[in-house]
């Protein structure tokens, strides 16, 4: 047993937003995203393989090892040398009070998060856990936020027409300094009709002149 020296926090580099998903394991705000392994498997297909095997069998253990290796490989491929901080979703109680299939039960979000934190600690990269509410529904180009803008893996803004992979769009929003939204009472933003959610840009004009109309939405 021995202790590794703590890495000095990095003072230079960029801040990246990282979205964690089932089909695309990691989507980074720099435009990079996880790819299938050399056997053509992504996290979704590996979890399906685990679900088809009997728990405790040799096939089950091999499939779980495949999942672990895939997570390790994809997290290592992130642009760590260019980063000083990463913003990731703070998802808690993912399945509390819910019934899930065997397939979804093998989506081990906690292990993915722990792996990201471990690498970041070794490299002196700061980890910030962000509130994920509405980040997948916000347009990273103009700030318009509406539930109907995202349809599975596709995102298209109904205001400016911006279109992108939904996970990459979400990761771009996670990388931003977005003001906290009030989520209670009459001030809760209406994501059904849509609202503008501007980023904090000190010294710069708001993303949209309509942002001032929604200023009472921010805590």
What does this structure look like?
The structure is a single chain. The protein is an alpha/beta fold and 219 residues long. The chain has helices at 43-52, 58-76, 102-105, 109-123, 166-175, and strands at 14-20, 26-28, 83-89, 126-130, 144-145, 150-151, 154-156, 163-165, 195-196. It folds into 2 domains: 14-130, no CATH class; 144-217, no CATH class. Helix content is 26%, strand content 16%. The strands form 3 sheets. The chain has a 4-stranded mixed beta sheet with strand order 2-1-3-4. A 3-stranded antiparallel beta sheet has the order 6-7-8. It has a two-stranded antiparallel ribbon with strand order 5-9. A hairpin with a 2-residue loop joins strand 6 and strand 7. Helix 1 runs antiparallel to helix 2 (58-76) and helix 2 runs parallel beside helix 4 (109-123). It is globular and about 50 Å long. Mean pLDDT is 82; it is low at 203-219.
